[in-house]
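Notebook, p. 212. Picked up where the previous page left off. The plan for this session was modest: take the two constructs that came back from the sequencing core last week, fold each one, and keep the raw output in the notebook itself so nobody has to go hunting through shared drives later. Recording the first one now, exactly as returned: residue sequence, then the C-alpha cell string.
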Amino acid sequence: MMRMVPLTLENGETVLGVEVKLPKTTLLAIMTDKGYIMCGALDVSLLNERLKDREIIAGRAVGVRTLEELMEAPLESVTTTAERLGVVVGMKGSEALRLMLFHQEV
C-alpha cells in the first residue's frame, strides 16, 4: 500500500510525504521540488559516488517508522550537494527540508 500526504513545516510551507508499506518494512520519504529526506533505505554513498553527476540533494535518517518521526529525526548522512546547501549531519529532517525549499542552484 502507498500513501501520499501533504505535510506542513513550522514555517507554514508544505512538503509531500510518501509512505510505501512493503513486506516487513516501510519506505518513507519527504520531498520538496529540489531534494528529499528518506528513511534508512536511502543509499547516500551511491548518490555521492555513482550518481555524483546528478548532484542530488538528499538526507537520510535511521530508526524512523513514520513520516512525522522522519521530520523530527536527526539526519544520519547527507549528500555532498546537500552539504553545500547547508544541510548537515545531525540536523532535524524538517530543517533540511526548509533549506531545500529555499535553495538556490548549487
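Okay, moving on. Second construct, recorded in the same format:
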Amino acid sequence: MPDVRLASPQGKWILLTTVLGSSMAMLDSTVVNVALPRIGRDLDADLAALQWTVNAYMLTLAGLILLGGSLGDRYGRRKVFVVGVVWFAAASLLCGLAPNAGVLVAARALQGVGGALLTPGSLALIQASFHPDDRGRAVGLWSGFGGIGAAVGPFVGGWLVDGPGWRWVFLLNVPLALVCAPIAVRHVPESADGRTDHGRFDVLGAVLGALTLALVTYALIEARSGSLVVVVTAVAGLAAGVAFVSVEKRRPDPMMPLGIFASRQFTAVNLVTLCVYAAFGGFFFLAALQLQVVVGWSALAAGTALLPTTALMLLFSARSGALADRIGPRIPLTVGPLLCAAGMLLMLRVGPDASYLADVLPALLVLGTGMVTLVAPLTATVLGSVDTSRAGLASGINNAAARAAGLIAVAALPLVAGMGSEAYRSASAFDSAFGRAMVVCAGVLVVGSVVAFAMVRSLPAGCRRPECRTHGSVLTPPLEGERTRGRLS
C-alpha cells in the first residue's frame, strides 16, 4: 500500500514533479495557438501548415495516450514518466530550432509521443505514491496547480511571442524538464502493476487508431486541393477505422474494449464529449488568430484576453460538480452546451476594432459559464456509467475522444468555413470565415445538448465520483481513476 504523506518533504517533491510534468504538456496545448500568426509569418507557412502545427501534436497524443498509461503500469510509472519528460523536452528543443514548417510539424508529432507518456503518468504517480488518506487531496492539488498552468499558458505564450520570439514557447520546456526529471528520479518511488497476467500490448490497435486519425486529418486539411490523393487518403482513413474496430473486437486484451460502449449512458456522454470538445478545439484554434489577424491585437493581448474561460473553470468547477451531484447530470449537460453555443455566437461581434469589454469579454464569460456548467458533470457521468473497476479505462477513453474531437475540428472547421490556404494573411477574408465557423461550432454544441437531453439519465447511487474536482483545461476533460491503461482492466 502506498504510504507517502502529503505533508512530508517527499510528498511535496512528488507533487511538484507531477505538476511540472503535466503542466509541460498542458501548456503546449494552449500557448501554441497564440504563436501561430508569428510562426506562419516567420516560416512562410500557409494555413494548412498552421493546422498541422497544432494537429501533429494532438494526433500522436490522442492516438497513443491509452497505450502510454499501460506502459507505466507494466514497466514502472516513474520510469515511463521520466522517459516522457525527457522525450518531450528533446522534441520541444527540436521545435524551437526548426528551420522550416516541415521540421516543426515533425517535431510536434514527436512532442505528442512524449505527452502520451507523461500525461497519464503524472496522475498515476500520485495515485500510486500517496497514502489513501491523502490521495484525494493530492489529486486535487495536482489538478488545481495544473489548471493554473493552463490559465497562465496563453499569457506566457503571448509574452514570449512578443518578446524573445515564438521559438521560446517550445524552448521553455527544456529548463522545466531539467528540474522535473531529476526530482522524479530522486524523490518519487517506483511503482508498477505487479501483476503477471498483463497480456500483450495492443500495438496493432494503437497503430490503426493513430493511422485512422492521421489519414482522416490529412484528407480534411488538404481537401482544398481536390486531388485524387485526398480522395484515396480519405478512403484509406475509413478503411483503417473499420480495421481498428475489427481488431479491437477480436483481441482478448484490446486497447479500447468495445464492450464498454454497451452502456448506453457511457456511449451518450462520449457523443456529448465529441460535440463539445470539437467546438472547443475549433474555437480556441481560430479565436487566437481572429484576435491578432482581424482585431489587430498583439500576441500578449490575445493570450490575456482568453484568460476568463480558464479562470472561471478554476474558480467554479468544484461547485458545479457539487451541484451536479445534487440534481444529476442531465440538466447541466443540456444547459452547458447551449450556454457555450451562445458564447460562440456572441463572438460574431468580434471584428475589426472590437472592444474587449463590450465585445470579447461578454462572449468569453458566457462561454466560460457554459464550460463550468458541463465539464464536471461530464466527468462524473463517464465514471458513473461503468463499473468501478473500469473507471480509469472509461476516463482514458473519454479523454482520448475529446482530444480526437479537437484534432478533427482543427482539420475540418477551416474547410467547412471556407478558409483558403492564405486566409489568415487577410483580415477581411479571415473575419468572414471566422463568423461562419462560430455558427458551425454553435450548431455542433446544440447537437451535443440534444444528445444529452435525450440520452443522459441520473447516476446510480454509490457510483464512483471524480477525484479531480478542480479543473482548468479548456481542451480536455480531466483524467480519473487508478490507472489509464491500454487494455481491459
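Notes on construct two before I forget. The first helix runs from residue 9 to 43.
Flagging for discussion at group meeting.
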